[in-house]
Amino acid sequence: MAGYVPHTDEELEEMLAFLGLGSLDELFTVVPPALRLAGGLDLDEGLPEADVLDRLQRLGGGNRAAELVCFAGAGAYDHDVPAATRALAGRSEFVTSYTPYQPEVSQGVLQALFEFQTLLGRISGMEISNASLYDGASACVEAANLAAAQTGRDRIWVSQGVHPHWRQVLRTFAAGTGHEIVEIPLVDGVTAWPDAGTDSGSGGPGSGAPAAVLVQSPNFLGCLESVPAARRAADGAGALLLVAADPVASGILRTPGEQGADVVVGEGQPLGISLGFGGPYLGLFTCRANLVRRLPGRLVGETVDGEGRRAYVTTLRAREQDIRREKASSNVCTNQTLMAVTAAIQLGWLGTGGLRELALRCGRGARYCREALVAIDGVTPAAPAPTLREFAVRTPLPAATVVGRLAEEGFLAGVAVGPGFEGTPYEDCLLVAVTERRTRAEIDAYASSFEKAVR
Amino acid sequence: MTTGGGRASSAPLLGRDHEPTLFELSRAGRRSASFRSTGIPEWEADELVPEEHLRVEPVDTVEVSERDLVAHFTRLTHRQYSVDVGAYPLGSCTMKYNPKVCDEVAALPGLARVHPAAPAALSQGWLELLVELEAALCAITGMAAATLQPAAGAAGELTGLLLMRAWHAAAGDERRRVIIPDSAHGTNPASVTLGGYDVTTVPSDDRGCVDLEALRAALDTDVAGIMLTNPNTLGLFEEDIVEIARAVHGVGGLLYYDGANLNAILGVTRPGDMGFDIVHMNLHKTFATPHGGGGPGAGPVAVAERLVPFLPGPRPVRSGDGQLDWEDPPRSIGRIHSWHGNALVLARAYAYILANGSDGLRRVADAAVLNANWLRRRLSSSYDIPFDRPSMHEFVASAATLKRRTGVRALDVAKRLLEEGFHAPTVYFPLIVEEALMLEPTETESPQTVEALAEALERIAAEALEAASAEGSSASPTAALAPRTTPVGRVDEARAARQLVPTWDARPQGE
Asked: Which residue, among B16, B254, B31, B52, has the nearest Cα to B143 in the 3D structure?
């Protein structure tokens, strides 16, 4: 087996002798005999390193999806990750350090997080960014909790365009907080907010006014939502506006901040993080300065050391669970720091021009692909609203069948729209994403296989 | 030369100069990014998206060359302590060595390149991995089934509390309180609140364990359950655990196991055998997945048979024909992660479990507990050991006497230890110990390293006593000034909070 315990038998004996013990078992006499595991764990003996790698490689070989040309998105995107990002994010000083509780020996991680917070502030148009949350879903939950605490209300209006998994997670955690999640339906691919004028007395859907309005743009179906319309809905109800944004789209789209968002959340996976079967990803959370005392998770601030040298430290710690305990409004401790550092590196590599070009290239590929698909007999756009990197189409066959058939041709065709859209015009549509990785030749071949598959 | 732009100098490393931010290294027109040739028409932004959505100017992030980018972040790594550099005796954090083979596992294309929404038929290898890991974690904890979705320990805690809530609700039993010992991690009470329960704190007795009589007095049918860490945060095994379990189950409550300290009991005993109903594990502690400077972690939650129907969904399950598919448990509390959890962290942990096996995992517990007890015994002559009896994988020392005699506090000891080339222990936790220094050497540090750590701590105490007696004063200049050999000296935390500078853009100009 591979061994990571360095002690020789002789050393074990010496250490036991120092403690006056005759055997390793005597270390555990405090464990009542009835609880001690007789015969050890019911697991195989340890394996040598090479065997471990072989075993995991074989499991990886069972994932046919890894070899397919990817047109799937739905919140996880097949972007190129440049060599520099991979090399820097893999530096073992970033990988194997702990939470920076000792700032004097953690300036590397702290400064990288400070730069991440600055970059996130810029791309979202907000003043404050935390140092990451688990994923897009957890960022939505924390935003809802913040809004409820800020307004003293417990209802959240959630656009049906928000990722269905994120909506599910919001409901799961609402069981503990008692928040009421009210879904606002889509019309023509974008949210049909209740008319504030007619509903202002009652506060609209549900009874009583909402703490917040949550909209995602581009939404799950790829459609660009009107953030000003969401702002009007929030204002009509006296609620906060929470916007889930795509960091890649920020290369060409107006920031949620300049359009009136109070909190901007999102999934940071497109910023240099591999698909990785869904994790670890990166929950993005930014807000206006007036909400900083309710910010969930860690925040890095600049300060000085005793000699006046520039230094960084986690700050406003009094918000956090280890100090506030049962009065805390978030229990987040370990987050996704390494992914935040990765995102900072990736945004640094992309730069101002590269981020814009990345967004443009996704948009161009998606337009080219969308035009090729809707030219196929029986394939139609699911909604008329404008899109950028991702769009949904209706197909003559069930979307899952299309995905299955195209897998045989070497393509992961997209994601079948299902749970969370039951009974809507979007149920069983196919969601297709095109990143900067997809070439014209790949899209042509995909469209041609698509046509055969639905014929 | 004009301002901005990078300088390939190692001054921040050698001269203790600060490293400029990316924003200071930025120079208009410089770039790193390049994109593949695609042959797709080069439509402009307004040919893709209606103008109302478009920004006028590109978002100004940063403009640096790839060379400057690499130099910058590499220099930052030189200002960062890590497990790969040296010992990290942070109590309760289990900062053990992270095997490199696990990095290779996480980078395998067959795992890393899989889209999370790929149909089960196209991701059978991943489902197989998850099912095998779940089985291994259940064997280790003595539980029936597990969810791998929680992304960290705190997410696992909240998941466990929602399971508790759903289980009681299914029986039509609305309970309002969850019991927590006063030695618990801060995440426990925070999670209880978010789970919709009120916290009832029970005190520790003079042995450092849950006061059984106080617990019995707190128990009634309004108690949904208890959250316990065993060994507890003092590093002590809760010897009355069977009695505790009987008492809590006696009022219809459930027992939640906080797995922060699972490392101590691998192959020795199992939470399931102690009577726990819900168990979360920190794979980034016990199963050596790297902590990443504060995550990603993974916090799977295992449960007893009666709670399996309530687990988060979808879960990977094997059907009759041997194929694996996703399934929602019948009374599932719902999804708690965007996808399937921190999958690549889960893969690393599985590789670690395979490499160690039943024999290796027991050896982990043996060496972890041996190192901690050796260090405790050794330090008992220079520091207070408030609960000086055999500990498990960690123990809590105190600088209370040292402080009274010399003015040197636990914080000073921690900062002074940084100068000695070791990471500091956890300080001022658990809250029930004055001037606490919580030490967890872990099993992967050699006896020589543990001895060197002991010598460093002894030296710090001795020098404080010497300075105090020489000056006849209470302040030890040496420890109070520490650290002096680190990239920055003691950081002004009060100023950071008072004059908040959370981004480069919020910085007062001209500083």
From this structure: B254
